[in-house]
Amino acid sequence: MDCEVAREALSARMDGEREPVPSARVDEHLAACRLCTEWYRVARQQSRMLETLAGTGAGGPAVPAPPPPHPGVHGGLRYALGALGVVQLCLALVQALGVDFGLVSTHHGVAGGTHLLNESTAWSAALGVTLIAAAVRPVFAPGIACAAGMYALALMYYVAVDSINGHVTAARVISHLPVVLGATLAFLLWRRSRKTPLVDGIGSGATVPSAAPHTDSLSERRRRKLGAPDNSAA
C-alpha cells in the first residue's frame, strides 16, 4: 500500500470518517512502515492538541478554571465599605437636620465658613480628576456616573432651596453646572460602553473574536498541515 493512501486512511480514522481502504490493510502497512508509524503518532498528538484548543477534545486534559476569589477577603471589604457608606449617609443626614459639628459658632463663624469652602474645593478637585479618568478609561464611568449623579441631585435640591431663600448668587449657581453636565456625560459614556464593550482595552470598535472553528474545518486544516491528501483528491 502506498504511504499517501495509508496516511489518508489514518487521517480519516482520526476524524471518525469512513476510511477509503480496508482498515486491516492499513494496519498491516502501519506495522511494516516505520515512517507511517511515526507520522501516525505525531498526527494523533497534534490532533489531541488541536481538539483541546478548540474545546472539543475528550482525550485532552481540560483547561482548569481560574480559582474563585476568596469570599472572606472580598466579603470583609464589602461589609467595611458598606458600613462606611452608612456612616457617611448618617453624617449627611444630621448635617441636613441642622447639626453643625462645630463648623459654625459665634466666635469662629468665619473660620467655619472657610473650612466649608475648603471642603467644597477638595470635592470639586476630586470630581474633576475622576471625570478626566473616566474620559481616558471609560471602565471608570459607571462608578463616577453613580457618585456624580447622586451628588448632582442633592446639589440641585440645595441650590433650589438656597436660591429661593436668597442665600446663593447666580454666579455660584452657574459654577455648579459642570457637576450636572459631568454626571450626565459619564452616564451616557457608561451606556455606550455597555452597547459596544471594549476588548482588552483596544477600543469600542474592536470586534470580539469568533468562536472556535468547527471540527470539520479543523480536520481539513490538520490534514493540510500534516501533509496528507484531501478526501476530494482521493
How large is the radius of gyration? 34 Å
Which range does the strand content fall in? under 5%
The low-confidence runs, each spanning 5 or more residues with pLDDT under 50, are: 197-218, 225-234
Number of strands: 0
Notes on the protein architecture:
The chain has 234 residues and is an all-alpha fold. It has 2 domains: 3-52, no CATH class; 73-194. It has helices at 3-14, 23-32, 34-54, 71-96, 109-136, 141-165, 170-175, 177-195, 215-226. α1 (3-14) runs parallel beside α3. The relative contact order is 0.10.
Summarize it.
With 234 residues, the chain is mainly α. The protein has two domains: 50 residues, no CATH class; 122 residues. Keywords: Membrane, Transmembrane, Transmembrane helix.
Task: Give me some keywords for this one.
single chain, 2 domains, 9 helices, rod-shaped, disordered C terminus, Znf_put, membrane, transmembrane, DUF2275, Putative integral membrane protein
Topology:
Blueprint (H helix, E strand, L loop, with lengths): L2 H12 L8 H10 L1 H21 L16 H26 L12 H28 L4 H25 L4 H6 L1 H19 L19 H12 L8
